[in-house]
């Protein structure tokens, strides 16, 4: 009998349609006349925010924009965006950007419907009882999967331990996935966000909550990323590669929300916070070390599938698979040792990072239990190599 599972995804996925056209059509269907667009300073500087603002204004919709976001968004930023939305009496939101912008939009949409502050839900245990205001998520990267997930990860400056808020009532109303929006993404960011998508799929496939439905999504996502991420990284104008990576991100994001993640993401949260790194880059950095740690606990049939997916012989050893994954990361130009980060590492509280990792909920889904000592050992390996 297959593993029992529930799959719930109320988000409409609109793939391959010009984003501005899809946005205005969805806003018309919602009869939304006052809309808050949440994005980031980089996209504002590129002119993309203005481009979408003009298209939405031309449809007769009153639009406010909020772009004061950092790469690891904070509850302070959520509160500022919420105040703007309340002042406008926003009827719907648009999250335009990577996971940061979409997560902030998700948090604001939830608070508009449920009231209170983000801390009430993040630390106070207040339940989410009402469906978020309609949110149209428009990803400009192919990686985070936030456009099809029910979680928003926001940093509280007063408690920097990374903890998401999640609820089935927080799913975006629609995910507008237009691969054209990823064309101008720099190579390193294409690689880092693409590795996030790949690792979402990998951790779901090897995690304890994997099920037959998510297995199909994760294997498909990994195959696409393995084939097309190097091409998308090398040539941003390769739209076939861009399209395939956006599919991989969608499938990885859908699986992530249902099958859960593992030790890579659990350790990535504290490491990102302490070293101020990009989330996808940190995941890629951790991949070889945590794969090596997890492999003894991964079922033989799943190890076989990973060997075949990475073009290894069926009977390839664990070390061969780790080496192949390491080559994949380095081939994308991403670091695989802490020394390659070219930033000061003295004074980093590695013990605190290890301890915080074991408090991350995600660690419970890892195929192999990991203690504080295990996490310290992984960090020591990362420091010693290179």
What does this structure look like?
The chain has 386 residues and is α/β, with parallel strands linked by helices. The chain folds into 2 domains: 12-181, Rossmann fold; 186-384, Dehydroquinate synthase-like, alpha domain, CATH 1.20.1090. Helices cover 53% and strands 11% of the residues. It contains 15 helices and 8 strands. The chain has helices spanning 19-30, 41-46, 48-58, 75-88, 99-114, 118-122, 187-206, 212-234, 239-259, 263-275, 279-294, 300-309, 318-331, 350-358, 372-384, and strands at residues 12-15, 34-38, 62-66, 92-97, 135-139, 151-156, 159-166, 174-177. The strands form 2 sheets. A 6-stranded parallel β-sheet has the order 1-8-5-4-2-3, sandwiched between helices. Strands 6-7 form a two-stranded antiparallel sheet. The longest helix has 23 residues, at 212-234. It starts with 11 loop residues before the first strand and ends with a helix. The model has no long low-confidence stretch (mean pLDDT 95).
Any descriptors?
single chain; 386 residues; alpha/beta; Rossmann fold; 2 domains; globular
What is the secondary structure topology, with strand pairs?
Elements: E1 12-15, H1 19-30, E2 34-38, H2 41-46, H3 48-58, E3 62-66, H4 75-88, E4 92-97, H5 99-114, H6 118-122, E5 135-139, E6 151-156, E7 159-166, E8 174-177, H7 187-206, H8 212-234, H9 239-259, H10 263-275, H11 279-294, H12 300-309, H13 318-331, H14 350-358, H15 372-384
Parallel strand pairs: 1-8, 2-3, 2-4, 4-5, 5-8
Antiparallel strand pairs: 6-7
Helix pairs in contact: 4-5, 7-8, 7-9, 7-11, 8-9, 10-11, 10-14, 11-13, 14-15
């Amino acid at each position: 009998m297959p593993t029992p599972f529930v799959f719930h995804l109320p988000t409409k996925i609109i793939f391959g349609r010009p984003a501005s056209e899809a946005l205005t059509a969805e806003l018309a269907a919602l009869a939304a006349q006052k809309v808050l667009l949440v994005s980031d300073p980089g996209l504002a500087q590129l002119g993309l925010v203005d481009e979408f603002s003009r298209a939405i204004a031309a449809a007769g919709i009153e639009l406010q924009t909020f772009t004061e976001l950092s790469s690891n968004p904070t509850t302070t930023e959520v509160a500022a965006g919420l105040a703007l939305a309340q002042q406008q009496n926003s009827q719907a939101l648009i999250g335009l950007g990577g996971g940061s912008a979409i997560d902030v939009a998700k948090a604001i949409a939830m608070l508009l419907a449920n009231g209170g502050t983000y801390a009430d839900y993040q630390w106070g245990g207040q339940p989410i009882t009402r469906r978020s205001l309609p949110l149209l998520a428009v990803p400009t990267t192919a990686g985070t999967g936030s456009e099809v997930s029910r979680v928003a990860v926001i940093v509280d400056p007063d408690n920097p331990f990374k903890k998401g808020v999640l609820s089935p009532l927080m799913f975006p109303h629609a995910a507008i996935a237009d691969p054209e929006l990823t064309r101008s993404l720099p190579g390193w960011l294409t690689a880092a966000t693409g590795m996030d998508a790949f690792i979402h799929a990998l951790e779901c496939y090897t995690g304890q909550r994997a099920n037959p439905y998510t297995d199909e999504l994760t294997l498909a996502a990994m195959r696409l990323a393995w084939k097309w991420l190097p091409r998308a990284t090398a040539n941003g104008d390769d739209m076939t590669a861009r399209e395939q990576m956006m599919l991989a991100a969608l499938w990885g994001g859908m699986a992530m929300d249902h099958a859960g993640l593992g030790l890579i993401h659990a350790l990535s949260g504290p490491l990102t916070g302490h070293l101020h790194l990009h989330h996808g880059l940190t995941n890629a950095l951790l991949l070889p070390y945590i794969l090596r740690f997890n492999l003894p606990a991964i079922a033989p049939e799943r190890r076989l599938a990973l060997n075949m997916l990475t073009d290894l012989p069926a009977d390839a050893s664990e070390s061969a698979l780790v080496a192949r994954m390491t080559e994949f990361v380095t081939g994308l130009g991403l670091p695989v040792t802490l020394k390659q980060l070219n930033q000061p590492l003295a004074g980093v509280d590695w013990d605190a990072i290890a301890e915080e990792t074991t408090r991350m909920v995600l660690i419970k889904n890892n195929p192999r239990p990991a203690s504080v000592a295990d996490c310290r050992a992984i960090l020591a390996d990362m420091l010693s190599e290179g």
